[in-house]
Amino acid sequence: MTLKYDIKIALRPAAFCVAFALSLACAPAIAESNLAYIEQVGNDNSASIEQRGDNNEILLLQNGNGNTAGVFQSGGDNYANIQQNGELNLAVISQIGDANIAYQRQDGSNNQAFLAQNGNQNYAVQAQTGNGNFASLVQTGDNLRSTDVQNGNNNTIIKTQTGSNLEHNVTQTGNNLYLEVHQTGSNQSVTIDQH
User: Fold this and answer.
1) Cα(111)–Cα(78) distance, rounded to whole angstroms?
2) pTM of full prediction above 0.90
């Protein structure tokens, strides 16, 4: 199934919900100029999106079976991109603020990725290749950067960043790896390569 929403004017919530039976969370005020594109190939895939504000954009692609994805964006000029290839993957993005960018890609089965950004001009990437991987990121503040790459099976990354001008870069290669990073303050950078 391919659905494209190009919202240029305020829409009536009831009409919006009836038109698209995707279990979308519909709010009384849907603002102008938000764009969402959903493409699903396979069986039993589920997608849920909600956008509040102006000039937000979502691209959501699912290829496989039993995948679940959700995106919530509130503010302006936010961008979220989810790509799932495989089976029974779960990906969730929440962005509150302005000019935030989030990417999630899953290739495999039973992977889970959770990404939350609260603030402005934040950037995050989560990429999972393999099976049974778990990644969680919470960024609170402004000008925060995070990249998480998992290659293998049953790996875990849990990260938080709070402050401004912080950066995390993590790569996991192998199986059954665990990593937890919590960073607060400003003008700091962490790069970790775990095998």
Assistant:
1) 25
2) no
